[in-house]
Design goal:
13% strand; 43% helix; 3-stranded antiparallel β-sheet; alpha+beta; globular
Length: 343
């Protein structure tokens, strides 16, 4: 019995989202009040490949909207377990940013949340694509897109914890999952991941980093910084897969890793993916110049977090659609390790 079958057996009363129209789903939407009187479901579609969650687009006789459901595993990697409370965290994240016009306009509107079934209803941003195309050769960010990305972080990192938010936006379960896959598993020599199946010769290139005790010590310290509570609200997974390009422009999605933490983590992850996408130093400088950091921001910590993100994306489970040669990856590995080793 796989995880999906176990889930259905343990929770037979939970609605199980699938990309097809069914009487059960229509009844569920009516019970939740997510369909107006006279509104009919025309179709249920798969809008794209979800990484963490099951996602469907519901098309009705009047509109369309997105449903997102957490299951006790990662949608893209079914053998990896994950906390079901992540949609509750995302709901609280949208509630927290609702008072900021900039953040509100750069994210989808939340239409409703069903805690028992872990289902989040969101505004449909329409036909679009995420920004993972940036990893292919000769791709660029469009006019104003760097500014939008940094404006979002600048505003988000001004938000502080308010009474009653700590329980959900501490997000310790998702932080623990992230910590394992960012700071630990990629650096274990025998972690079950066949790097040579990803690119021949990558395993040998990885060994110096997996066997470097000093580097691992630095990673442990950085991992502890990540796990500790921080002063500002952060997105927690700020990379091209969480940026959506549509008719209305750039939007930021999928804040299920959001928590009150170190703002340097968000900025470092963004910078790391600019490097992985080979966008060039001028773009990185533009982003850093446009970002307005909160008080106490540590640029050395941001640089170290960027280095960790590069290493884990090249050596860990969460691989990207990169078009880099082995030598290009090795150069990135060396640069990333050096940024972590700096005093």
């Amino acid at each position: 019995m796989d995880l999906k079958d176990k889930f259905k057996a343990l929770y037979p009363e939970v609605v199980f989202l699938e990309a097809r129209t069914s009487p059960e789903l229509v009844d569920y939407l009516r019970r939740k009040g997510w369909l107006a009187v006279g509104e009919e479901v025309v179709s249920v579609q798969k809008p794209g490949e979800g990484n963490m969650n099951a996602v469907v687009r519901v098309v009705t006789s009047r509109r369309s909207f997105i449903l997102k459901q957490a299951r006790p595993w990662v949608q893209k990697y079914p053998r990896v377990s994950a906390p079901m409370g992540r949609t509750a965290v995302e709901a609280r994240f949208y509630e927290r940013i609702a008072g900021d016009e900039v953040l509100r306009t750069l994210t989808p509107a939340m239409l409703g949340f069903d805690a028992p079934d872990s289902v989040l209803a969101l505004e449909d941003l329409g036909a679009g694509t995420d920004f993972t195309y940036l990893y292919q050769p000769n791709q660029l960010l469009g006019t104003g897109e760097v500014a939008s990305l940094t404006r979002f972080l600048s505003r988000l990192h001004q938000l502080r914890e308010e009474p009653g938010q700590g329980e959900f936006l501490a997000n310790q379960s998702m932080k623990a999952l992230n910590h394992e896959h960012i700071f630990q598993l990629p650096f274990q020599e025998e972690n079950g991941l066949d790097l040579d199946a990803i690119q021949e010769g990558l395993r040998d290139r990885s060994l110096p980093y997996r066997r470097d005790a000093v580097l691992k010590g630095k990673l442990s310290v950085l991992g502890d910084r990540y796990l500790r509570p921080g002063p500002t609200l952060i997105h927690g997974d700020y990379y091209p897969g969480s940026w959506l390009k549509g008719a209305a422009g750039l939007r930021v999605i999928d804040p299920e890793f959001g928590h009150f933490g170190r703002p340097e983590f968000d900025v470092g992850v963004m910078v790391a993916h600019f490097k992985l996408a080979r966008l060039g130093e001028p773009v990185i400088r533009e982003a850093l110049d446009g970002y307005q950091p909160p008080d106490g921001f540590e640029y050395s910590l941001m640089t170290a977090f960027a280095g960790v993100e590069v290493l884990r994306r090249l050596l860990g489970l969460a691989q990207l659609p990169l078009s880099l040669s082995l030598d290009e990856k090795e150069a990135l590995l060396e640069e990333a390790a050096a940024s972590i080793m700096k005093p």
